[in-house]
Design brief:
Low-confidence stretches of chain A: 1-6
Number of strands of chain B: 7
Order of helices and strands of chain A: HHEHEHEHEHEHEEHEHHEHH
Mean pLDDT of chain B: 93
Mean pLDDT of chain A: 90
Structural class of chain A: alpha/beta
CATH architecture of chain B: 3-Layer(aba) Sandwich
Number of helices of chain A: 12
Radius of gyration of chain B: 16 Å
CATH superfamily of the largest domain in chain A: Aspartate/ornithine carbamoyltransferase
Structural class of chain B: alpha/beta
Strand content of chain A: 5-15%
Largest sheet of chain A: 5 strands, parallel
CATH topology of the largest domain in chain A: Rossmann fold
Low-confidence stretches of chain B: none
Number of domains of chain B: 1
Oligomer: heterodimer
Strand order of the largest sheet of chain B: 2-1-3-4-5
Distance between the termini of chain A: 38 Å
CATH class of the largest domain in chain A: Alpha Beta
Strand order of the largest sheet of chain A: 7-6-5-8-9
Strand content of chain B: 25-35%
Radius of gyration of chain A: 20 Å
CATH topology of chain B: Rossmann fold
Order of helices and strands of chain B: HEHEHEHEEEE
C-alpha cells in the first residue's frame, strides 16, 4: 500500500463525488475541502449552544477503533459523534482482542455484527483504514484517524479551519511546517490540504535527517535553516518531536534540536507580526516550542482543539450522508 | 411564471394578524426567528414593520431534518444564528410557506436546544395545506390550494415576490 494509492479516490467518493469514507486528502478537490470547512463552521455554532447536540446521527453506532493509543484525537472524535447524537463504542484494540490472537478481519466482522454504521480507525500501519474500507460491509463509513506515516486528514482539516478563521482564506499565504516531517502523517496531510486550498507557499523546515526522501514531490519547498525559513511567514506549524518513533540517532540531542528548530520568541519575531502559531499537540514545552510562545497571543493551539470537534462532526455527517445517498441510489437502480 | 400575489398586501395581512394576536396575548417585545432562506426575508420585513430594535434570529434546520437517512445532509448548510437568549422569551417563528409541517417541527426542536422559550407563535406568508403533522400556523397571510402540477416559490430578497409555475 503506497501513500498515494490512486484507488483511494474512487474508494472514498460516491459516483456523484460525495464523501462516503474519509481516508486521505489525496485526490480530493478544493471544492470538497471547502464544503468540509463550511459544514464545520455550522457545527462550531452548535458547540456554542446550551444544548450542544443535533439529531443527525441519532440511532447510528460509531465505533472508535484505536489500534494505537491517543487521547486528544479519540476524545474529540467521541465528543463529535455524541454531539451528532450517535451511540459511541470506544475500542482500544492494542489492549484487546488482537492480543488474544484475533485477526483484524475477525474483529471487524464481530463489530459489523453489532450493526455499526461507522468505524473511526487509528492504526500504526499506513493503509490500514484503506484496507478496512475495501473489505467492510456496504453502508459502513470509515474515517481515518491517523495511519502510520501516511495520513491524518481530520487533523489537517481542523488546521485548515483554524487558518481560514484567522486569515480569511488561503490566497497568498506562506505557511511553514517545522520539525519531524519524516515521521509525521500530519505534515503529509497538511501539505496536501494547503496545496489543494491554494496557499502560495508551503515550506518545510527541518534537519535533513528528519525529512523524507523526495520531500519536494509532496508539494513544498525545503529550508534547513530555521532563521532563514521564518521570513515572511503567515503561519508556522510546529510538529511534535516523535520521541517514541525515533529509531537510531537522527538527532544529536533534544537541547541541540531546540536551539536549531525550537520555536522561541526570538525566532517567531522573524516572521510576519501577525504570524499564527499552531501545533497539533501534544506539545513538548522546551523541546519544540517555548512556553511563552505556546501560551502567547499569536498561538491558536487551543482553537485547534475546539475546531477539531467541529471538523470531525462535519466529516462524520458528510461520510454518513454519502453512504445514505449511495444506498438510496442502489435501491433506485433495483427499481 | 406569474406573480399573482401582491407582496405588500400579503405582508400587511401578516403584520395585522401578528399585531392582533400579540395584543391579545400581551406580548410587547417578541423575538423574531426566520427559517432560511425565505423565512429570513419575511422576518426582516416584519422586524421593520413592527418597529423592533432587536436583531432577528436565523435558523438553518438542515441538522434537524427528519429525512437524513433517506437523502443525507444538505451540502449548503449554513450556521444558525440566534443573537438573543431564547430562554423565557416569546418567539415569533417565521417562514414563507407551510405545507407538510416538517420544517416547523425541525425548527421548534432546534429552538429548544438554545433554551426553553415562554411561547412560540408561528407566522407564515402562505399556507398550502397538505399537512402531514398536527402543526398549524397562528397567523397566515394567504391560503392557497395548488393543482398537483403547480409550485410556488418566494424570490428575494429585493424585491420580494412570489412566483408560481407549472411543472411537467
Amino acid at each position: 500500500m503506497t501513500a498515494h494509492d490512486p484507488s483511494s479516490h474512487s474508494l472514498q467518493l460516491t459516483s456523484s463525488g460525495q464523501l462516503k469514507h474519509f481516508l486521505t486528502l489525496d485526490g480530493l478537490e478544493r471544492a470538497l475541502l471547502t464544503d468540509i470547512l463550511d459544514t464545520a463552521d455550522s457545527f462550531i455554532e452548535v458547540g456554542e449552544r446550551t444544548i450542544k447536540k443535533v439529531p443527525l446521527l441519532r440511532g447510528k453506532t460509531v465505533v472508535n477503533l484505536f489500534f494505537e493509543s491517543s487521547t486528544r484525537t479519540r476524545s474529540t472524535f467521541e465528543l463529535a459523534a455524541k454531539r451528532l447524537s450517535a451511540d459511541v463504542l470506544n475500542l482500544d484494540i492494542s489492549t484487546s482482542a488482537t492480543s488474544k490472537g484475533e485477526s483484524l478481519s475477525d474483529t471487524l466482522l464481530n463489530l459489523e455484527a453489532m450493526a455499526s454504521d461507522m468505524f473511526v480507525v487509528r492504526h500504526s500501519q499506513s493503509g490500514a483504514p484503506h484496507f478496512i474500507a475495501e473489505s467492510v460491509t456496504p453502508g459502513v463509513a470509515i474515517i481515518n484517524a491517523g495511519d502510520g506515516r501516511h495520513a491524518h486528514p481530520t487533523q489537517a482539516m481542523l488546521d485548515m479551519l483554524t487558518i481560514r478563521q484567522h486569515k480569511g482564506g488561503f490566497e497568498g499565504l506562506k505557511v511553514a511546517i517545522v520539525g519531524d516531517i519524516l515521521h509525521s502523517r500530519v505534515a503529509r496531510s497538511q501539505i496536501r490540504a494547503l496545496n489543494a486550498l491554494g496557499a502560495e507557499e508551503v515550506r518545510v523546515i527541518a534537519p535533513g535527517t528528519l525529512l523524507p526522501r523526495d520531500v519536494e514531490s509532496l508539494g513544498c519547498t525545503v529550508e534547513y535553516d530555521m532563521i532563514r525559513g521564518m521570513r515572511d511567514l503567515d503561519v508556522v506549524i510546529m510538529l511534535r518531536l516523535q520521541k517514541e518513533r525515533m529509531e537510531g540517532a537522527l538527532l544529536p540531542s533534544e537541547r541541540e534540536f531546540y536551539r536549531l528548530y525550537g520555536l522561541s520568541q526570538d525566532k517567531l519575531a522573524l516572521a510576519r507580526p501577525d504570524c499564527l502559531v499552531m501545533h497539533p499537540g501534544p506539545i513538548n514545552r522546551g523541546v519544540e516550542i517555548e512556553s511563552a510562545v505556546a501560551d502567547g497571543p499569536q498561538s491558536v493551539i487551543l482553537n485547534q482543539v475546539t475546531n477539531g470537534i467541529a471538523v470531525r462532526m462535519a466529516v462524520m455527517s458528510m461520510a454518513m450522508s454519502g453512504q445514505v445517498s449511495e444506498r438510496t441510489q442502489a435501491v433506485g437502480e433495483q427499481g | 411564471m406569474t406573480a399573482l400575489l401582491n407582496m405588500d398586501q400579503l405582508l400587511d395581512q401578516l403584520e395585522a394578524g401578528l399585531r392582533e394576536l400579540m395584543a391579545r396575548r400581551g406580548i410587547e417585545s417578541p423575538a423574531l426567528v426566520g427559517i432560511r432562506t425565505g423565512g429570513v426575508w419575511i422576518a426582516d420585513a416584519l422586524k421593520k414593520r413592527l418597529g423592533l430594535d432587536e436583531p432577528f434570529g436565523e435558523l438553518d434546520i438542515s441538522f434537524y431534518r427528519d429525512d437524513f437517512s433517506r437523502i443525507g445532509l444538505n451540502p449548503r448548510v449554513k450556521p444558525s444564528h440566534l443573537p438573543f437568549e431564547t430562554e423565557g422569551r416569546d418567539i415569533v417563528l417565521v417562514d414563507d410557506v407551510i405545507m407538510s409541517g416538517r420544517t416547523i417541527r425541525a425548527a421548534m426542536n432546534e429552538i429548544f436546544d438554545y433554551g426553553r422559550p415562554a411561547s412560540i407563535i408561528l407566522a407564515t406568508l402562505i399556507d398550502l395545506g397538505n399537512r402531514e403533522l398536527p402543526i398549524q400556523p397562528d397567523v397566515v397571510a394567504q391560503t392557497l390550494t395548488l393543482k398537483e402540477t403547480q409550485r410556488v416559490k418566494l424570490r428575494g430578497p429585493d424585491p420580494l415576490r412570489i412566483e408560481m409555475r407549472e411543472t411537467e
